[in-house]
Amino acid sequence: MLYSLKSRLITAFVLLFVLSFYVMTLLLFNESRSIIRSYLESSALEKMDEYGSFIDMAQAQMYDFSSLVFNSELTHQWELAMADPTLSPGEKSLANLNFSRFLTQTTNNYSIISSVFLYRDDGLRIGMNNEVVNDPSFKEEAWYRDFKERSIRWVPAHLDRYSQQYNNKSVISLLMPIGHFEPSLAKTVMKVNISSSYLLDPLNRIHLGENGTIFLVNELLQPMLSQKEYSMHADMLGKVRELRVGTNKQGVEYTPGQEKGDEILVYKRLVRTDWMLVGFVSEADLYGQLFKLRDSMMTFAVILLLVSVLIAIWLSHGFTRPLSRLVSAMHHVQHGDFAGAEAKIPAGSNVRNEVGFVTSTFRNMVGQLRSHIKTEFELKLLRQQAEYKTLLMQINPHFLFNTLELMSSLAMQQRTDDTVQVIESLGKMLRFSLRINDDVIRLAEELKYVRDYMSILEVRFGDKLHLTMEVDEGLEDAMIIKFILQPLIENAVKYSFRQSPEAYVNIRVQREKDRVRLSVADHGPGMPAELLRKLTDQAAYAQLDHILASRSREIGLGNVLARCRLYYGKLFGLRIESVAGEGTIIELILPFREEIAHVSSVDRG
Fold it and tell me: CA–CA separation, 99 vs 105, rounded Å?
């Protein structure tokens, strides 16, 4: 129970030992995370500043090299020679070799440059070390088309098949037009290559947490270096695109995540080429050690909680256990389970205090209450059985008087054969009626009794009475209470003759699943609404006192309803259809039983 003494003791220990520890842990964790976050922002941006300076230096050298080649007189002369149609092939080859030696000498002065090539529209390619090749296949390269069509000057890390003799690793390239500033109009394109590892190795030495990575991306947000992990952060590109067009040159952004907490994005824009340094790290990665410390402290808090609960239980066990048993016993009493209540409170309790006295007194009270209820139950059962017998005995004299009047009338009319038939039928009925100890009989016996009664009625009314009976097969062994059809037939015949000189009565016995339906239909005047309501009430409540006190001769139907209600309880059903001037159908709905267990009537509903 929430408000029990034991619960309050446990709550007090939990608040005392655990809540304070939890608050301290939470404050320590949040403060530590705040310190680490502040350190991340300053440290990561400082490292990005250093690396950004390195990138600017590398780009400056590549631009210086390109400018040197672009503005060289040898380059201008070579361009003129290639464009002069009057020069012989030998003279052009000599010009190509001289220009290749110039590229070699110039490249050797820049340690950052791994290779350089010039590509002409006529398919000529000139590189270092006297490399002069006429192969127009370079025009199909993506970098060449992007430069000519979209003026994209920087090529991200890739494998340059023409420079593999110098360096078989991926390179980053700067493309420059020769002889013209507009790439689409230039006849010659210079491609300056540097090894991507030259820029990647220093970047890999910058760490964000354990697994966080910093990427160098171009203006199209494509990675400039061979960092395959970049594709794993595709969901963050939208945020990076917003930062690229923003006004801030650097900063730290926090984006809500799903599995690993907030996603932290560190960025810095490089002014020279509009590149960006972008770093991605999750809170779970950045604060991994801190999370482990938090989990350890929470585990300790759980252990502390368990110890507190055990201590509270141990302290409260001595005087809360008897109270808990008493409360449990009260719940059993509330649901009528007196045996369960007595089992919860053992006899001869060793507790010698106020709680023990209350427990012992309550156990004695439960025993006395149980004995009293048992006595009342037995008395009610006996009273109910006596009431049922009284109702059963009420049927016999009521029917007997009517039959004796008929026999007297037949004797006065000297109708000997009819008199004998009535006497025989009456004798069978009386023998059946004297079996007052048989409350429940087979349906076949009830129908035999009804047929004897019908034979008496046919003698009494002759051709004016039309009786029919329909019985479904397989119902002979169904068990029902006795004397429930004859009163209904008697009323149906009597009221039919009030309406017409002839009476039509139909008896129907049928089975529907686990129910037996007994219906009696007549063509009489119908029932008044007040009488119909009264009968419905009698079906719902066994109005025994009213029926027994009634002096009316029209007690048959009420008697039947009362007995059905007493015996079957809620399993009994009644349906009455009555139309003024057209007749009435009374249907009794009983449970289908072939064998009746020896139980009291109070247990049948």
Answer: 10
